[in-house]
Design goal:
CATH class of the largest domain: Mainly Beta
Number of strands: 22
CATH topology of the largest domain: Porin
Strand order of the largest sheet: 1-2-3-4-5-6-7-8-9-12-13-14-15-18-19-22
Radius of gyration: 43 Å
Distance between the termini: 77 Å
C-alpha cells in the first residue's frame, strides 16, 4: 500500500541515526497494488506495524500521514470512486402555520356575466334567500280579480341552483330558480351554450358567442348577481324597464385587458313582463343591445369600472278579435221581468290588427371599489333615459295613449364593509315614468309629476362565502294618492325587509 511504502522514509527523516530500510519484497505483482472490491471503492489494509505507528507514532508523523491521506482522497474523488453525500440526511418538513386572518377578496370579485371565471370542468353552486317583509300599504283584503293585497309575510325570494361547465373552447351555464313571490313556482333563469377563445385561463375570454337564455347585458344592475348584491332588489328604474333579468337571444362578448364589450339581439319580452308573451316574441323585430365599458385596477387597493349602454327595439300592441252582434238585458227595476227599456243591442266589431311601436334606452354606469384597513368601500351609480320602455310599473303603450312615454331614472349607492363580518349601506333611487305626464283638474290638463323616490338604508352581518343576515328599510315617496281636493300626494308604501341568505 502507498501509506506503508511512505512510512519508512518518513521515519528515517525523523531519526537521522536510523539507516533507510528496504521495502519488503512482494510475493506477486498484485500485492503492491491496492485491492478494489465489487463496489468500486478502495479498501486499504495497512500492516500491523503501520497501524501501531499511527497509534503510537510521534505527532509530526501523524500530520504527514493525514496530508498523504487527504491527497489520496482527492485523487480517488477525481476518479469518481467516492460519492459524498449520496444519501443526505432527511430534512424536517416545513411547519405551515394556519392563517390567523381571513384572506381578502380581490376587488370586483362579483360574478358578472359573461365575465365570470368558473373552475375547469363541471362545478355546482346554490343559494337560498329567505326573508320576512312588511309593507305599509298592506291590507287584509283582495284586489278586484282576487289578487292578495296582504304583503306582510314570510317568503322564499330566491332558491337557486346552478351548473357551470368550463372547457378550452366551450362553456355552459344552467340556473334554476324556485320562489314563493307569487305562490310556489319554478322557472329557468339561465341556459347558456357558448363557444369561446380564452388563451389565458386566468382571465375572461377574448371573444365568446352565446346562444340561449341570459341576463340582458344593459348597464350594471341588470347583470349584477343577486347572490353578491347587498341591497334586496334592483332600483325602481331597472325593475320597471326589465321586470326580470333573463331574455332569449344571441350574445357576443369579449374582454381585452381592461376593455369590455357586449353586443346582443334578444326577443324583447323578458321574464316577469306584464304581458301574455313572456320569453316569446310576437313580432319579428329584435331588441338590439350594445354595451362598451372598462374594468381596471390601477392599484392593488383600487378598482374602477364602468360603461355605456344602448338598446333599440320594437314594442307590441295586441289587436282585438272580431265579435258578433248581441243583445244585452239590464234589469233596471229588479223585478225579474224583461221590459222594453231594458234591452240594448250591441253591434258586432271587426277585428283590429296588432301594431308595433318604437322603444329605446340609453344609459351610463360607474363604480369604484377601495380597500382600506376597515374593509372594502364601494361607491356606484347609474343613469338611464328611455322611451316607451316601462314594462313593469307604468306600462307604456303609445298606441293607446297616442303619446310616446318618456322615462328617466338614476340611482347612487354606497356600501362599507366593517371588518370581515359587518356591512352598512345606503342607496338613493329616482324614477320618473313619464316626463310628459299631465293631470286633469277642474276640466284643465296641467303638467304633473309621477316621480317615485326611494331612500334605502341597509345594515347587516356576514360570514364570508357562507351566509348573510341583512336588514333594509325602503322609504318610498310617490304621487299615487289624492288629497280631498284631488291633488296627487304620497301613498304610504314604506317597506322593511329582513333576509337570511345561505350559500354553497
Amino acid at each position: 500500500m502507498v501509506i506503508a511504502g511512505l512510512w519508512p522514509s518518513v521515519a528515517a527523516a525523523q531519526n537521522p541515526n536510523v539507516p533507510p530500510q528496504e521495502p519488503p519484497p512482494s510475493s506477486s505483482p498484485t500485492d503492491a497494488a491496492p485491492s478494489f472490491p465489487q463496489g468500486g471503492v478502495a479498501q486499504p489494509s495497512p500492516p500491523p506495524s503501520v497501524r501501531e505507528s499511527l497509534i503510537n507514532g510521534p505527532p509530526a508523523a501523524d500530520d504527514a500521514l493525514r496530508g498523504d491521506v487527504e491527497r489520496l482522497r482527492e485523487q480517488v474523488r477525481e476518479l469518481g470512486l467516492i460519492v459524498e453525500n449520496a444519501h443526505p440526511p432527511p430534512q424536517p418538513a416545513p411547519v405551515v402555520e394556519k392563517p390567523t386572518t381571513l384572506r381578502p377578496r380581490p376587488l370586483g370579485y362579483q360574478a358578472f356575466w359573461p365575465w365570470v371565471i368558473p373552475p375547469e370542468g363541471i362545478s355546482l353552486g346554490a343559494y337560498v334567500q329567505s326573508q320576512y317583509e312588511a309593507h305599509q300599504d298592506s291590507q287584509d283584503q283582495l284586489q278586484q280579480g282576487g289578487a292578495v293585497l296582504n304583503k306582510n309575510r314570510f317568503l322564499i325570494r330566491r332558491a337557486r341552483a346552478s351548473l357551470l361547465g368550463e372547457w378550452e373552447y366551450a362553456a355552459i351555464a344552467v340556473e334554476i330558480d324556485a320562489n314563493t313571490t307569487n305562490g310556489p313556482q319554478v322557472d329557468l333563469r339561465k341556459a347558456e351554450a357558448s363557444l369561446q377563445y380564452r388563451p389565458d385561463r386566468t382571465k375572461p375570454p377574448i371573444v365568446m358567442a352565446t346562444l340561449g337564455q341570459f341576463d340582458t347585458p344593459f348597464g350594471y344592475e341588470l347583470v349584477e348577481s343577486p347572490r353578491t348584491r347587498w341591497f334586496m332588489e334592483r332600483s325602481q328604474t331597472s325593475l320597471a324597464f326589465w321586470p326580470g333579468e333573463p331574455d332569449l337571444g344571441l350574445r357576443l362578448a369579449g374582454a381585452l385587458e381592461f376593455f369590455r364589450w357586449t353586443i346582443a339581439a334578444v326577443n324583447g319580452e323578458p321574464l316577469g313582463e306584464k304581458s301574455a308573451y313572456v320569453l316569446q316574441d310576437p313580432n319579428s323585430a329584435k331588441d338590439v343591445v350594445f354595451r362598451f365599458g372598462f374594468d381596471a385596477t390601477p392599484r392593488e387597493d383600487l378598482q374602477v369600472a364602468g360603461g355605456v349602454s344602448a338598446l333599440r327595439g320594437k314594442g307590441f300592441h295586441p289587436g282585438t278579435d272580431a265579435t258578433k252582434s248581441s243583445l244585452q238585458w239590464q234589469d233596471l227595476d229588479n223585478n225579474g221581468l224583461v221590459g222594453n227599456a231594458e234591452l240594448t243591442a250591441i253591434p258586432g266589431n271587426v277585428a283590429t290588427p296588432s301594431q308595433n311601436f318604437d322603444r329605446w334606452a340609453a344609459g351610463a354606469d360607474l363604480r369604484l371599489n377601495y380597500r382600506s384597513p376597515l374593509g372594502v368601500t364601494k361607491v356606484y351609480g347609474e343613469f338611464v333615459l328611455g322611451s316607451n320602455m316601462d314594462r313593469g310599473l307604468y306600462v307604456a303603450d303609445p298606441i293607446v295613449t297616442l303619446v310616446d312615454q318618456r322615462e328617466l331614472g338614476f340611482y347612487v349607492g354606497a356600501s362599507q364593509e366593517v371588518g370581515p363580518y359587518g356591512i352598512v349601506g345606503f342607496r338613493y333611487d329616482y324614477y320618473d315614468p313619464n316626463s310628459n305626464a299631465v293631470d286633469s283638474r277642474a276640466g284643465r290638463n296641467i303638467p304633473t309629476s309621477e316621480v317615485v323616490k326611494t331612500y334605502s338604508p341597509l345594515i347587516g352581518v356576514a360570514l364570508p362565502d357562507r351566509a348573510r343576515l341583512l336588514f333594509q328599510y325602503d322609504i318610498v315617496r310617490n304621487a299615487l294618492a289624492r288629497t280631498a281636493e284631488g291633488v296627487p300626494t304620497d301613498l304610504k308604501s314604506n317597506v322593511w325587509t329582513v333576509r337570511l341568505q345561505v350559500q354553497l
